[in-house]
Design goal:
Helix content: 55-70%
Largest sheet: none
Order of helices and strands: HHHHH
Number of strands: 0
Strand content: under 5%
Shape: elongated
Structural class: mainly alpha
Amino acid sequence: MKSRFAGFLCVIAVFQLMGGHWAVLQATAWVNMLVKYSETDGVKVGISKAFDGQHPCDLCLSIAKNKQTEKKQSSQLEAAKIYLVAQAQRWTLQPPRYFWRLAPTISSLVSCESKPPVPPPRVS
């Protein structure tokens, strides 16, 4: 259930990013103009008036104005791109300032006093 909802949200986001909301609004405006012009002049004249571009409605004018505003804003954003790639840094290794040197003791160098048992024990 959650994955379907997440997929639906992703599809809606891609639709909006690609400008699908403008297409839905424009189709709504064309249908409204088609109905309005067909009521007074007939279907044939209504279709030609709706799609000729000479008789735009208020919604069409608003869509065109907002599309231009959106294009101007996107062109301004392109000029101010942010590059997220970090520059390579050089690392240099330096010895530590302070360190303790452990001197080996003589007792650790002396061999073991005890000898292994002869014969070796057997596991039974």
